[in-house]
């Protein structure tokens, strides 16, 4: 430490030199992807069932899951795929879905469009996903579906959750939108539940731009999900049950298909994924190894039996007591002044959103809701209020210097704890 060193917040030189943005995602397309897109423009800009790049993407995706699921059906978004999954799993008026109190809302919001109800259960502070004990306590006589979200890439405690599901005759939906390529005890996520959905939206590790994919091994789930979003050719050609197939002309009234252009983008992203996953692991191992002596951060826990896939951001927890009680917002302000791309994770606890907090289903006034929601004192609240969101970093070894400077910025803040405490208390704010 030179005596001249000062927090950038107070006029010193920033620790991170590279200008923003640091997380550039999705990466630009290679020429092969661009020429395939151009060719598709003149071959077919519409969709014929699951032909062409749509069927190819679905085949590739099943291979990506090591044959752990029998069927894959693409949709125009992860949210659409979740709607189809909930419909296929039997969600309707009078049915409760139990899901995590802190996650991206779209994991559960489609339940309301089917007149179902969501019961929120607390999360496990280590996995940041559904806590099995809280799940058990949240079950009602109307519960039919458990939704797990492998939050920020870390798989949920699937052994315990599947035991609860089996004991109670419940179905399990995995939302794997943060967890492409994550494994639990050697098995890819998306192959544990009755159905799984992966969003392929632009921010996700495998991206179509806009898109989602539903996977299942249950022919009944496959048929009903297909009919909900894919009338005509695809329903005629792929729905297995004859009575259900009779509806092929109309399906169940909705058209939620992926465009072939998005499928082409997603196929290329999937092909590039293994190398990117490896690069992310190298980057984040390099970062994590340097944060051990930053006492005001609780490192991200990764269980031994877990492979973090593509991570979906690096989200350590802040320990304010180790930094003189400085509020998280001030810490973020100081880190940003040092040149870092850092913030609080974007999603609030679901119980704070009007769709969840309202005593009736706002889409269908008169349909009551239970509103069971972990509030003050929950792990969900703790993580919501203490997590920091850092870039995932994907360029190895190009990002090494940048990562080193992030680690240095964290250490620098620690060295200037007193100055930051004074700043936080001062009238200048
Ligand atoms: C992104 C995301 C969704 C929604 O997917 P879209 O493709 O944006 O509709 C659902 N659940 C989780 C956990 C997500 O991160």
TrEMBL record:
GO MF terms, alphabetically ordered: pyridoxal phosphate binding; transaminase activity
UniProt KW keywords: Aminotransferase, Pyridoxal phosphate, Transferase
CDD domains assigned: AHBA_syn
Any one biological process term the GO annotation gives: polysaccharide biosynthetic process
Co-factor(s): pyridoxal 5'-phosphate
InterPro entries per record: DegT/StrS_aminotransferase, PyrdxlP-dep_Trfase, PyrdxlP-dep_Trfase_major, PyrdxlP-dep_Trfase_small
Active-site residues (renumbered): 204 (proton acceptor)
The organism's place on the tree of life at top rank: Bacteria
Entry-annotated residues carrying N6-(pyridoxal phosphate)lysine: 204
Family named by the database record: Belongs to the DegT/DnrJ/EryC1 family. L-glutamine:2-deoxy-scyllo-inosose/scyllo-inosose aminotransferase subfamily.
Protein name per Swiss-Prot or TrEMBL: DegT/DnrJ/EryC1/StrS family aminotransferase
Organism, as annotated: Streptomyces qinzhouensis
